[in-house]
Fold this sequence. Notes:
The complex is a heterodimer of chains A (about 250) and B (about 300).
Chain A: E1 3-14, E2 17-28, E3 32-36, H1 43-50, E4 58-63, E5 66-67, H2 73-78, E6 81-83, H3 96-103, H4 112-117, H5 119-139, H6 155-168, E7 173-177, H7 185-197, E8 204-208, H8 212-218, E9 221-226, E10 229-234, H9 236-241, H10 243-250
Parallel strand pairs in A: 3-8, 3-9, 6-7, 7-8
Antiparallel strand pairs in A: 1-2, 1-4, 4-5, 9-10
Helix pairs in contact in A: 3-6, 5-6
Chain B: H1 2-28, H2 35-53, H3 57-79, H4 84-104, H5 106-109, E1 115-116, E2 122-123, E3 126-127, H6 131-154, H7 156-166, H8 168-173, H9 178-204, E4 206-207, H10 214-227, H11 234-249, H12 256-277
Antiparallel strand pairs in B: 1-4, 2-3
Amino acid sequence: MTALLDIRNLDKHFDGITALDDFSCTLGEGEILGVIGPNGAGKTTLFNVLTGFTAPDNGQVLLQGNNLNRLSPHKRARLGIARTFQNLRLIRRISVLENVLLCFKDQPGERLSNVFFGWGHCRAQEASSRQKAFSLLRQVGLADKANDPADALSYGQQKLLSIVCCLAADAQIILLDEPVAGIAPKMIDKILEMIQGLPKQGKSIVLIEHNLDAVMQVCHRVIFMDAGAKISEGTPQQVRDDPRVIEAYID
Amino acid sequence: MEYLLHVFVLVCIYAVLTASLDILAGRTGLLSIAQAAFYGVGAYASALLAVRLGAPFLLTVLAGMVMAIVISLVVSLPSLRLQDDYFVVATFAFQMIVFSIFTNWMELTRGPLGIAGIPQPVIFGWHVNNHADFMLLAAGSACCAYVTVHRIARSPYGRVLHAIREDEVLARAVGKNTLYFKVTVFAVSAALAAMAGSLYAHYITYIDPTNFTVMESILVLSMVIIGGAGSMWGPLVGAAVLVILPEALRFVGLPSSVAANIRQILYGGLLVVFMILRPRGLMGKYAFGKGGTGK
């Protein structure tokens, strides 16, 4: 399996706190990689480094062999890395549908000159985006909420929507930061089922989650990290049975 | 009657200014207090072109807008990399610089003496030389500004502006080059403010630096907030209220020295009252600023 994403020797320190300590790993195509570890282990920092919001002190992130280090967040997103946020970010005052529309890449209507001179062309493009957005929402059962403000959705539905947004962005790599934390069991099943289906659509996933059952259920491979370092890596079963992991979770 | 038309023209000119600030502060969340600077750039550019070179009205308006756009790029490319409050300070600094230039570059602007004898507009043979005609011109300009702002707001481009206002981190995470959006919307805002400036110069036919102080920027900001930032009619209503209300004071029979001071108190007082009791303004749906909620 060729590595889609190759993460090499990342270091990151915040004022003496070690968030990433010589962290390396790879992500294969169509893989669901779980990242677990206690709070403050550096999981979210890893996502921030991958998406370009935090610059690493050392190390490299390679996407299909190309070094991403110097690219800003929006450029990485356009290369096909999408993410959700632990503290759930959505544009709350616009509709559910518009949140999805916002995520499509390369929209001609987003160029200022086209607002004045390319109206017709953009309209057609916008209409087809709307169709696509609707069908994405229909697949997850949010179509009837399409015109409600995003704020009106339940917490679980908002998490679902944030994953739909990643799909709209047509990303090949989706980074999910605690997609099932704090939501109802029924919605957890729905979201997990959705995540499990993503590799079939050509997506590769990195999943941060505290809910170990969820991780065991969907992940192909799991990394346990603590204090910024990779402690254990393997199949979900191997990592769960690793004494160092057990120790860390009992502590 | 003349007087009523005069007030109406002022409302329209301020409506262009509030539209220009609303697209920036109300819809994108970029608080700028340099609106009077761009207003002044438009006014001085078109006044000087008209007085010194005898350029026709439409050309001077266009030149003022182009000049404002160019200056806005020079200002925004460095300053838009700054975060919220620092950006406000940067616009304030720019406002002060522009005001100093108006006041001190005697050869060009004649400093505090101002520029007199600005010709009234002639548009394809239409001599705009009375209040009624000017009312039409001003109303037309205000309509143009509003159509522009609403067209932008309803486009996919405007959707990204809204996203930047609410959550710039998310906008970047979904692949939007937020600097492009902020720089371009700042340019649009500057161009609209300059258009208002040209109108003002050709209407009053005399300008001096006191028309373009930071107080003017704050007045426009008050109009946007009181009317309702980011809403369809808010900026227009705000402009109307804050132009008409002080004018109404003239009829209360206060001596003019007192009235001028009361006006200043009125602006400040209204702003404070609105921020406390109705932060979303008269027509707005949401409170001004990024963290505003619907309540």
